[in-house]
Amino acid sequence: MKFIPILILSIALLAGIEKTQGQSASVQGIISDASSGQPLVGANIVLIHAVHQEQLRGTAAERNGFYGISNLSAGRYIIRVSYVGYVTMTDTLDLEAGARITKNASLMQDEELLDELYVAPVGGTIMRAGGEQRIRPVDISRVPSPAGGGDLASYLQVLPGVISTGDRGGQLFIRGGTSSQNMVLIDGTLIYQPFHIISYYSAFPEELISGVDFYPGGFGARYNSRISSVMDVQTRDGNRYQHQGSATMSPFLAEIYLEGPIKKGNSSWLASGRRSMIDYTSPWLFREEHPLRFDSQFFKFSHRGSDNSNCSVSVMRTHDQGRMDFESDDVFKWNNFVVGGRCMTLPDESIGLFELNAGLSYMSNSAGDRHNPELYSDVTRFNMDLNITRFIGNMRLEYGGFAKMKWYNYRLNELFQNPREDTDVMLGSGIHIEATYSFSEWARIRSGFLLTFYLNNYNPSFEPRLRFTWNPFKQENEEFSASIGIYRQGLVGLSDMRDVSSVFVAWMLSPLGGEQMQAIHAMAGWKQELGHGFQISLEGYYKRLNNLPITVWSSLARFNTDLALADGNVFGSDIRLEYNSSRVYGFAGYGYSWTKYVTSQDHFNIWFGEPVQRFHPPHDRRHQFNSMLGVSFGWYQVSLRWQLGTGLPFTQPMGFDELIRFDDGMPDVRRMYGNPRIIMEKPYQGRLPVFHRMDVSLERIFNFPSVKISMQAGAINIYDQSNIFYYDVYTQRQIDQLRFAPYISVKMGTR
């Protein structure tokens, strides 16, 4: 209850600010695409005094296309709304003292300007304030992917600080965090494992995405229960006026995408389905069988009301299955099922934008025998949250509350280990408040906190967060930003990372001392436009990690749910250089990262002669370089992607012994040799070789009166580099990542 005074003080402060602004006028609204209703994040809104014809105030549409300009004097104004590739809207507003006017704008696409979307100055890979980045479909489409279209997974792996263990497994590690410490939201509802077993792909192809807010750290107070990163994915609404669709076929993937109106101008539907083809095509494509398979389906219904409201219901299902070691019998599977509803409304003369989300998420995964897996875990999550965004004077205020319930269970029954299973429920609720105050046109600060309560599992959690942005030279293209905050996570995703080929995750509560995992994030960065189409950004970061549950170390290679606590430190930097012109797009990014854990365990003294061990975890990639080049000429587009990463840590084997069991009676040791076991060295003292690879694609577009056909030819790993994925110490056998593979894909869709 010690946090109640903070809440009371915050409410009193807001009431006082509201009272002082009572005589000022304000205008707010939502900027969207006229045909689909999609919010146009980044659209420019300018107010011009109708008498003096001078620009008074300007702003940009934010999340959900929402904008607000307050603290205005009474009078007549001209409002001008513009967005690259769309026809500019101009209108007149008459504001009275104390009036609050809602002015929405639905912009029509300008066919003559659509090509400029490719070179739009907003977005791109250059980081925004404090690590925040807005990812657009056009950004995703630039990354070569053997699918006939872009995918969020391929795009994220181009960014510095994002680590992937290989081209299979579907796990991403972001700035020192594990994959289970990332939060991925689809229209406000959590999805636990959206990345497919073939790591080029996710549940989010380019065609489904309206935009993605990506935070590799330093995220705001509205996000809770994760300590590493946030990927907030907003999907498209279907076209409200005409039916459209496309179909894609390639040796890697088959996909279909359809959309159209239910009631013209008011409601629409959108559906898509994907299925990997590599399990069929790999014998002739790679000259060996690759037993990897995934499929996903998505459906969305959306409705726009007459009271400035928009509601939608989304359903997503994914299924992944395959063998990381192609010669092993162990099968890994995971499934997601997500259903969520979202309503957004901005009534006339309302205090602000209201956003209500409710959703149910289910994820199961298993490893072992295809029909009776030795390892199994599932987790179910229900969430409901309300967020309100409003403007008071020079301050943007966002606040709301949430409630969540999680069920989880796991069953573990591996060799050399007694069966372990458990089931539990976690209940939580909380509030968040965050205010963005503009000291001037060139400096603003965002301060807030998250307050979470748990029914039985943990003590109340108070998480303050602060972000600062400053344009010291009063230029929009020269910006300094910094952030700091505290983040906590209660549900643990436990993996046996000593085996790089294992992607099984057991979800459970931390049983050690009733403390949540905690991270302190601090980062600072600079963004600079260099002129002639070049932009550069540099960001440094530090994370302090506490109360990380890790498996108790054993000299034997096995999955283990006996836990110990570890602390960690992460620091690093990202530098990005981007070039954008009408015909050429180029990007180069370098990331340096250093992650180290420290843990004390009872058996360390016996095995290693010291009670404390310090080690770099298996996702600690020290150096990573990524580059892209895209050149368009006529109807052709050439894309190149090259990446290089230094080796990841692994635990070296020290030797073998034989285990003879007495469960079925006294063994005959003269004829029975037992089961071989690996004896492991100190944790993560070795490093894998350097990884590097180049992908290339050539695309040709054919436009017909009602049909658009895109043909793409390309190859992955064009110089056939042997990048190691897994090494079987039992058989002394190395398993490599995907070798050189050419492909041709065809995509046909309506215009």
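Next protein, fold it too.
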Amino acid sequence: MLLGKHFRRYYAKYALYFLVGVFVLIAVDWIQLDIPKLVGGIIDTLKSTSPNITQIEQSIIRIGVLALFITIGRFLWRYTIFGASRRIEYELRNVMFSHATKLSQSFYSQEKVGGLMTYFINDLEAIRMSFGPGILMLVDGLMLGGFALYRMFNLNSRLTLYAVIPMVFMTIALVFIRKTISKRFKDRQDSFERLSDFTQENFSGITVIKAFVREIKEAILFNDRNMDLYDKNIRFMKYIIIVNILIGIALNIVILVIIVLGSLSVINATSSDLTAGQLTEYLSYFFTLIWPTMALSQFINIQSQARASATRLEKFLNHPLDVKNSEDAYDVSDLKGTLKVDHLTFKYPDGDQPILLDVSFEIHRGEMVGILGRTGSGKSSLVDLFLRTYNLEPGMIYLDGHDIMKLSVKSVRQSMGYVPQDNFLFSDTITNNIGFALESPTKDDVIEPAKLSDVYDNIMEFKDQFETILGERGVTVSGGQKQRISIARALAKDPEILILDDSVSAVDTKTEEAIIKNLHRIRKGRTTIFIAHRISTVKKMDKIILLDQGKVVAIGNHATLMKTSPLYQDMVKRQTLENLVEGGANHEGLQG
């Protein structure tokens, strides 16, 4: 049985189901053993010189009634025991998913999606088998086996002793090989996890694989991992099959001994020997005993697999929640959008050097602010901290005067709309993607955000328009369309603070200007933050915060920074030259 802290509570929660199921199962086990006795009695009656037909008819009727009770009982214990195991699987999967959504970015930077999916599929199935078939096999093996042995012993104690001794040794041997089974199952699970990781990455990166003509090479690598899983599966199944074969051989030898000795006993026909009907009854009990023996061996296999899976799941479920509410956290529902950063220094949990150094600035409510800097200057890290993706020291970021570390995570994130740099889209309709923050989005809810992000016309060109199903991660639309749909998704939320992390880099300057113009118009009185590396994105902002190597090197609007910041001037010159070069190349191409 699984007694880890994440599993034992289900025994108490579903105790009534398990108790009823076990009680009915034991009753069925006892009742079904009356049938061999009745059959044996019928045989002995038929062998007598003057068989009692009435007694035979009564025995047949009793067999029919017992069969009816057994059928009803088997339905009840299946419904209760297997039903409880399915409910546990359902609840545990929800607990796992809820825990997964609360884990921090640092966890997902170390874990792969394929490995996580193994927890939700193979490992969870092994846990369900422990709660369902595992309990059945344990109870059925012990009780049905005990009842059968009891009746066998009453019929012929000497013959029962011959039958039991090899089965006892066989059970002891199964206990000793349990650890080997568990280890081989864990090896198989680990190999499946590696194959899942590799497959998921290849499907996600199929465009890159094709672009670099790596199809054959990746197929060879896949074959290697697939073969490893095949070998692990074969090793595991060979071990199980060998064990089952040895059990089968042992059982067949015992059956042969019983038939020989029992037949001799019937032939001798003394008062202490078995009659033909009793030998039939005895053999029926022994054949009934085969299932408990097999059930106990399967129980050991199931438990070995479940223990290996439980160890993996407990490691996952015990992983601490790095980003969570502090003990004195509180909710604020009407945050307005004033941000203050006060001497902020931050490094990632797995990093050695600070990403942000002594950063200080303030963003007032209603301002449209650009955060500009070269690659690696700390722009996206700053966004992660605004969204409470990572922890930081108290007193470094304030939202409307509240220390962001004292506010509940929910309050902080509900006040913000975020357009990420990677523009992740779900495999769903465009309506549901844009209306992701809404309870039940309709087409009317998403039309205006789509127009404001300048993607409406593109959507209307699709065959199914807003009901178009996007491929995984939005692969069916272009990079610029993905960015604009992501912007529309954030606008549909209508947040107090809108953060766009390099979110117009894939669109042309005309579209960029249209989007920014729309944002200026509809975001009056609300805070908007643009993370960018292009000057054209931020030059019309109320304020520009210039970062370099994790430090704030200048703050001001475009005109001010052109006068006071050498770094900003250099960036403007470089990007102007780049635009001229690109324009010249296009001009030459047109002339050609």
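About the second fold: The CA atoms of residues 67 and 346 lie 72 Å apart.
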